[in-house]
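Milestone M4 deliverable, item 7.
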Amino acid sequence: MKQLLHYETKTFALDHTVIESPYDIDTHIHDGYELYYYISGDLTYYIEGQAYELYPNDIIITNSRELHRIVFNSDVRYERKFIQFRPEYITSYQTEEYNLLNYIEHRKLGYFNKISAEYVLKSGINKLWEKIEEATLEDAPENQILMKTYFVQLLIKINKIFSEFHNPLIERHQYDYKIVSILDFINKNLDKKISLDLLQDTFFVNKYYLSHIFKRNTGFTIMEYITYKRIMWAMELLLSGITALDVAHRTGFSDYSTFYKAFKKITGISPRQYCSA
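Output delivered:
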């Protein structure tokens, strides 16, 4: 792995990496937003039941509630960039009249995540991204301001593209509405016991066939998806001040020990460490 550029603060991170022989990346959870800029490789990008095929200069946008996974189809050289940020990074630019995160936040999970290369290049998003990168390379006192203003301009361009979704600006995507219904059911019932038998009875689909099509469409097994979504919800609740024990019960875990192990496996830290991070 060759890291061409990396910059990171508590609220903003920028990365440009090349991997000569890529391998599947373990699923991880972001507590903010991600703009993923695809350059090259042979992969499928799964987001909440949608499998996106990517072309150079495509951008994928995900918020903190969207579970996603990259699966490589071969070991072709892989190159990508990303920006990860927390909403606090741009708080001073938010106004009552204009929400910079409007279209990143207010989408149905897994819908309209991709902006195709044609509109990335036409809108100049690629040029603004380059300016942000350039601003990280020099230690000039004004560069922090430049980075943030370029980034705000980039978000405004993304909002403009999304606001015109009824035009062919964002690639239309074919959805498997059976899977969409199942995902919606799971997300609304994370606090309850969810089993393959329950899903089979609810959606009138054989549980073994359901497991197969779910994995094919999402990149996750059903139980893996449920566990990750519960942990994502738990992260939100922990930050709101609810105790870890109460969070474990509220998010559908059978006991605290199971919750603790799942939380640490997925996030890499304990619930207590997460709250104090």
